[in-house]
Every structure is written in structure tokens, then in C-alpha cells.
Amino acid sequence: MKKLILICVFGLASLMAADGAALYKKCAVCHGVNGDKVPPGSKATTTINVLTKEKIIEDLKGYKAKTLNQYGAGPLMYAQAAGLSEEDMVALADYIVTLKK
């Protein structure tokens, strides 16, 4: 019985895990489906699909805390990152690094 309960708990947790691909759909509007676009109005010289997982998470945390304003994207990114949990940030980073070419 205990094994069955553990299996159910872990199964439910995996269903509730953040889905990076689903979360990325909002990001794709500016960053492109493959993360290979510089957002409109941004002064960035690189795209997000070349960043490391660690850098993506660090940047998202900075935007959420409103302590980062890279390339003039701060105000827009503050709003985008506001609702992200740490789990969401990791899921997004895990997904974005798969977009590297």
C-alpha cells in the first residue's frame, strides 16, 4: 500500500512539473520559435539560443527581481518574469538550451 501511495505522489508531481515548451510559447513572440531572433527594440547582439542554462536562469531571476535591465529590455522582461517560479525558470532554461544549433 505504501508503494502505491508513493507511486501516485511521484506520478502527480511529474504531471505538475513545469513544461518548458509550453512556457516558451510566450517568449517565442519576441525571441522567435527557435530562440534565434533579437527582440524588437532590443539592443542585444546575441540571441537566447546561444546562452547557457545557468545564464538563462540568472537573467530570469534578475528580471523577476527587477535588478537586471539588459539591452533596454528590463520593463518588458520584468512583466514577463513576474509570474515565473524557480521551477518555471529551470524548465524554460532546459527547453531553451535545446534550441541551440
Give the helices and strands, then pairings.
Layout: H1 2-16, H2 20-31, H3 53-65, H4 74-81, H5 86-96
Helix pairs in contact: 2-5, 3-4, 3-5
Quick recap:
The protein is mostly helical and 101 residues long. 58% of the residues lie in helices and 0% in strands. The chain has a single domain, classed as Cytochrome Bc1 Complex, Chain D, domain 2.
Describe this structure in words.
With 101 residues, the protein is mainly α. It has one domain: Cytochrome c-like domain (Cytochrome Bc1 Complex, Chain D, domain 2). Helices cover 58% and strands 0% of the residues. Helix 2 packs across helix 5 and helix 3 (53-65) crosses helix 4.
Number of strands: 0
- List the uncertain runs: 8-16
Distance between the termini: 47 Å
What fraction, in percent, of the residue positions are helical? 55-70%
**Which structural class fits the helix and strand makeup?**
mainly alpha
Shape assignment: globular
CATH superfamily: Cytochrome c-like domain
Rg to the nearest angstrom?
A: 16 Å
CATH C-level name:
Mainly Alpha
What summary fits the major beta sheet?
A: none
The assigned CATH architecture is: Orthogonal Bundle
